[in-house]
Amino acid sequence: PTFTLAPKSGDPLPQRNPGQTLYQPGRIIGEGNLGTAVLLRRPSGEAAVWKTYNMFGTGNAPVEQDPAVMMQLWRAARAYSELNHPNIARLYEVSPTGDVVMEHVEGKTLRDRMKEPNKISVPEIFTYSISLLDALDHAHARGITHNDVKPRNVMLPEYKMTRRTTVKLID
Questions:
Q1: Rounded to an integer, what is the distance from CA 95 to the centroid of its chain?
Q2: CA-CA distance, 127 to 124, in Å (whole number)?
Q3: Rounded alpha-carbon distances, angstroms, from residue 30 to 27, 47, 50
Q4: How far is the C-alpha of 49 from the C-alpha of 91, rounded, in Å?
Q5: Contact call for residues 99 and 14 (beta carbons, < 8 A)
Q6: Which run of H or E residues covers position 124?
Q7: Quick check: 103 and 48 in contact, CB under 8 A?
Q8: Burial class for 84, CB neighbours closer than 10 Å (0-12, 13-18, 19+)
Q9: Most buried one in 8, 26, 112, 170, CB count within 10 A?
Q10: Burial level of 154, CB count in 10 A (0-12/13-18/19+)?
């Protein structure tokens, strides 16, 4: 993963319009209170996700105008960029505004799977749990706590799964 504290002259970083940098923008794949997720194509042809955040700092100023909040975002992104685990979505880049470009995981969320009419089997539950706990153990061993573990942030990839890649933790 790449991590850039500040843009260097000539470095292509994702800004508010990634289509003007290294990435070809695609469709919006998710929207929520905190931001938007846009499907991108990396120069390698690999799919990625550009996540913008509609966050506010103190006094409802945009987050990029609040140095304390920006520093907190940068610290979190720096820590996340150090993670390298098959059950954690990779972080590719962080923009100066705190937006991120990360691995796109094709599949459905655990939340979506839980809504399906056929129940999740006990063996599936164990397999998902072991993979998720393996990812969290990896992060915790590096002093990182994921503060938003929930079924919506656990992806079930569509590609052939192995014991270590049955889930991907995102966000």
A1: 14
A2: 5
A3: 9, 15, 10
A4: 10
A5: yes
A6: helix 122-141
A7: yes
A8: exposed
A9: 170
A10: buried
Confidence of residue 165 (pLDDT cuts 50, 70, 90): low
**Structure tokens belonging to residue 73:** 């975002």
Q: What is the DSSP string of 140-153?
A: HHTT---TT-SGGG
pTM over 0.90: no
CA distance 70 to 110: 30
Query: Can you give the C-alpha Rg of the chain in angstroms?
Result: 17
CA-nearest of 122, 128, 120, 76 to 98 is: 76
| Each residue's pLDDT tens digit, 23-57 | 777 888 888 766 788 898 887 888 899 887 766 54
Structure tokens at 139: 């992060």
User: Band of the pLDDT at 18, cuts 50, 70, 90?
Assistant: very low
Q: In the prediction, which pLDDT does 111 show?
A: 92
Task: Summarize the confidence of residues 123-134 as an average pLDDT.
Answer: 92
Active site residue 148: yes
**3-class secondary structure, 23:** coil
Catalytic member of 11, 112, 137, 148: 148
CA distance 22 to 27: 16
User: In whole angstroms, what is the distance from residue 151 CA to residue 142 CA?
Assistant: 23
